[in-house]
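so the lab meeting is tmrw and i was supposed to have these ready like two days ago... anyway. pasting both below. for each one the top line is the aa sequence and the line under it is the C-alpha cells. i havent really looked at them closely yet so no promises
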Amino acid sequence: MTSVQTTKLIGYPWSDLFNLVLDVKSYPQFVPHCHHVSLLSRKTSEPGKTVIVSRMTVGFSAFEVGYSNRTTGDAIGRQISIDAADGPLRYLTALWRFEPQDETHTRVHFSVSYEFSNPVLAVVASRLFAAMFGRILDAFERRAGRLLRNRATAGAASPSQRRLTTS
C-alpha cells in the first residue's frame, strides 16, 4: 500500500477550489500525467452533494492505465472523496478537505492511498502515481491562479506553505 498526504495554504476561497477539484472533465488540461477523462454520469444526490462517475486514463510515454472512479463532492462538509471502481488498482481512495482560513485563503488537505492488483504493474506504475499525486496540489494551485486570478484580492497572493509526506 502506498499513501501520499499533502497540505497547502492556497490564496483562494474554499468554494472556488472545491469547484476546481470537482471539475474532473478538465483534469487533462493541467493534472500531471492525466491524458483523458470520460464523464459517465453526474448527479446531485441531495442538497450540497454531487456524485460523478468517470473513467480516467493516466500515463507517461507509451505506458497508460485507465480506471473508473466515483467522485463525491460534499459542499456542506467541504470535502471531496474519490474511490476507484475498477482497473489495475486493488483499491484507490483519495480525500480532499478544504479548511477556510479567511475569506481568501484555504488550507487544502489531500490524501490518497492505493495499491495495484498486479505486482509487476505496481513496480512500473507506482512511480507514475507517486509523481502525479505528489504534485497534484501544485497543479491545482496553478490552475486556480490562471482561472481565478482576476477574482482574487490583492492580498491573496501570499506565499504558500506545504507539507508532503509519503509512506
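ok protien two:
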Amino acid sequence: MTRRLASLILAGQMLGTLLLAACDRPQEPGSEEGQAVVARTSESELPAWLSPTDGTDPGRWLAGREVGHPLPAGSEPVRTMQDALAQAKGGFIEDPRMIANRTAQLGLMLAEIGKTERYALLLTGFSTVAARRGRHKSLYGEMCQHYFNTRARGVDHAAALALLADRFAPLAGDGETP
C-alpha cells in the first residue's frame, strides 16, 4: 500500500512538472514569424487546457471542467468560480488562466487518489493562505503541489490548509502582520 501511494505521488509530481514546463515554455526564436495570433473560444466544448491565446473566460472554463460540460455565462457556478479566481488573482504571481489550469490539474490528481474536492473551495482556501503574506505574492503551482502531497498522506482538507498556512506564513521581520 505504501509503495503504491509513493508511486502515485511520484507520478503526480512528474505530471505536474511536465505540465509546468509545457505551460511556461518560452517560444523558440523566429517561431512567431509569419504567424498570426488568434484567440479562440468555444461555446460547445471545453479545451483540455487554456492556452495563452485562448479567449475563453477562465472562470467559465474551470466551472465547466469541474462538471464535465460547458456552462452558460452568468450561471451561478460560473459566477462562483469567477469570484474565486478574482480572489486568487491578488495573492498569486500566476495569471487567472494559469491558476485555472493548475486548479483543474490538481482536481484531476486528487480525484485519482480518491479525494475529490470542489475547485472553488481549493481556490478560496489557497487564497486565504496567500492573503496572509500581504504584498508578498505566492506561487500557485507550488502551493498546489504541497497541498496534493499533504492530502496524499491522508491529511484532510482543513488540516492541509493549516499546514500550508504554516509553510507559507509571512517571514518574520518583514514589517507586516498576518
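from a quick look at the 2nd one: The helical segments are 2-23, 58-67, 76-89, 96-112, 119-131, 140-152, 157-167. The radius of gyration is 17 Å. will dig more after coffe
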